[in-house]
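INTERNAL AUDIT FORM
Audit reference: QA-55
Scope: verify that the stored structure record matches its stored sequence.
Auditor: D.O.
Record contents follow.
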Amino acid sequence: MNASVQAQANGAAGKSVINAKGLSKTFGGGAVVALNDANFEIRPGSFVSLVGPSGCGKSTLLRLIAGLIDRTNGELAVHGRDVTGPRTDVGMMFQKATLLEWRTAVENVLLPTEMAGTVTKADRKNAADLLRMVGLKDFLFAFPSQLSGGMQQRVALARLLQTGADVLLLDEPFGALDEFTRERLNVELMRIVGEVKATTLFVTHNIAEAIFLADQVFVMTPRPGQIASIVDVPFERPRPLSIQTSPEFNTLVAQVRDILGEDH
C-alpha cells in the first residue's frame, strides 16, 4: 500500500472496529498470492464497499475477517481481538441464498439460533420481525420454492441479522439478480444496516452500486490483491436512487473507474 492510501486508512478510523496491518494470504504453499500487505481500519457503523477485478482478493478478505480461513502474514483484529476463527460478532452472507428447501422462511431464519442452542419464543418472534423488516411479512411460512430470487435473498439477509452480529460481511449478495430487484434491495439494505447500526463490508463488481451504498470504497488491484486507493463518499445515508444521476455521483464513478483502469 502506498503512503497516501495508508494515511487515508489511518485517518478514517478513530476507534476502529476492524483493523488490518500487513494482512496477506497465499494459497498453494505460496504459489498464489491472493492478498498482499493490506492495511486499513474501519469505523463503527460505517459501510465499506470493495471493488476490483475478479480474483483480486475481495472474497478472500471477507473470509479472513469472518475467520473462515487463516491469514498467512500480518495482523487482523475485530473489536480489538485477534481473529483466530469464526466468531459470533461477525456474520457473512454469500451470493446464493443457500436456503434449506424443506424449511419455511422463518425456519430458515432461525437456523443460526438453533445451531447456537435452544430456540426460545423470543427468538421466534425476532425471526418473524426480521422477515417483516426485510419486506416479507406475508411470506413467513413460505418455502424457498415459493419465493423469487430476490425474496430468497431477503430471507438470507434476515438470517444474517438473526445472528446478532454487529459486523456484516456481504459477498456479492445481489449479483445474480435483475437490475430492478437489485436496486430495490440496495435501498432496503441501506435502510436496514442503518437501523441496526451494523459495520458492513460489501463486495461488488458494480462501481455505481459500491458508491451508492458506501461511506468508503476500497479499490483493489489485480492479484496479488492490494488496496490501491480508498475513496470517500460524501453523501449522507440513506440516499435516494436518483442520486446516481447527479454530477457529483458520476464524478466519483469516473474516479473509481480511473483507479481501476490504472491497474489493468
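Auditor finding: record pair retrieved intact. Strands lie at 18-27, 32-42, 47-51, 73-78, 81-82, 90-93, 167-171, 199-203, 216-220, 227-232.
Action required: none
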